[in-house]
Amino acid sequence: MSQYACHCCQQVFDKATDPCFIVRLTAFLEIEPQLDEYDLHDTDHDHLSAISDALEKIQSLDDPTLHEEHLERNFQMCRDCYQRFMADPISRDVSASISFSAN
User: Secondary structure of the chain in the HEC alphabet?
Assistant: First the structure.
């Protein structure tokens, strides 16, 4: 009997009777040099130099998250948690579901 634990609700499920959804998360820093419309059509413009300048600017910043490699993670989810995740993958509606007491 093959089982899995949902990464969200921590319940243990049997893979033979309950589907296991795998959510793959990949995160990385997007590096895009600032080019105006003229630069895009200018065949003499050195695009590699522009990318190099953008990399140098990022490396000079004092933010450790900018120097991390890309991140890849896999999460096992049960059907209910998967459906909630797909409905709101970046948790925009979390604040709407939190209620506070009237102290």
Answer: CCEEECCCCCCEEECCCCCCEEEEEEECCCCCCCCCHHHHHCCCCCHHHHHHHHHHHHHHCCCHHHHCCCEEEEEEECHHHHHHHHHCCCCCCHHHHCCCCCC
pLDDT tens sequence for the chain (103 residues): 689 999 999 999 998 999 999 999 998 877 665 555 555 555 666 767 777 777 777 666 666 666 667 789 999 999 999 999 999 988 887 655 555 566 6
Q: Which residue has the tokens 């609700």?
A: 9
- Residue 23 sits at φ, ψ, to 5 deg, of -110, 120
AA letter at 94: V
* Residue 87: other Cβ atoms inside 10 A: 8
Which residues are within 8 A (CB) of 58 and not within 5 positions of it... i.e. 6 or more apart?
Answer: 29, 31, 66
